[in-house]
Amino acid sequence: MKERRFESVSVVCPFYKHETKGSIACRGFMEDSSTKITFGDPALRVGYRKAYCESEGCDLCRIYRMLEAEGREARVLQKITKKAN
Q1: Nearest-10 Cα torsion for 15, 30, 32, 65
Q2: Given CA atoms 23, 28, 29, 33 in this order, what sign does their dihedral have?
Q3: What is the pTM of this model?
Q4: Is 68:35 a contact under the CB 8 Å cutoff?
Q5: CB burial class (10 A; 0-12, 13-18, 19+) of residue 50?
Q6: In what order do the strands lie in the sheet with 34-38?
Q7: Phi-psi region of 12 (alpha: psi -120 to 50; beta: other; left: phi over 0)
Q8: What share of the chain has pLDDT > 70, as a percent?
Q9: What's the per-residue H, E or C state across the chain?
Q10: Over the range 8-25, which residues count as b (16 or more CB within 10 Å of their CB) and which as e?
Q11: pLDDT over 90 (residue 40)
Q12: More confident call, 3 vs 18
């Protein structure tokens, strides 16, 4: 049986996608993919979401930092490619 997905209306993180009782899904590294954080206790998921996803502290989240770095790298490569053409 599939877990019910829901979205928090308080989230400010641009990479947040949805969550279930035991996980939070964020944007993935490839198109149409997700990165999922799984929690053994729903209270830990709620605490994580409040600390990172729903606050300006989202830039302290490791997944946020990885996805942000990937985006910066893609923008640099795009600039280099444009200059070469």
Answers
A1: -10
A2: positive
A3: 0.78
A4: no
A5: middle
A6: 16-20, 23-27, 34-38
A7: alpha
A8: 92
A9: CCCCCECCCCCCCCCEEEEECCEEEEECCCCCCEEEEECCCHHHHHHHHHHHHCCHHHHHCHHHHHHHHHHHHHHHHHHHHHHHC
A10: beebebebbbebbeebbb
A11: yes
A12: 18
* Contact call for residues 8 and 58 (beta carbons, < 8 A): no
Residue type, 39: F
Q: Which amino acid is at 22?
A: G
- What is the pLDDT, as a whole number, of residue 73? 77
Residues written for the chain: 85
Adjacent-strand bridge partners of 25: 18, 36
**Tokens standing for 52?**
């990172």
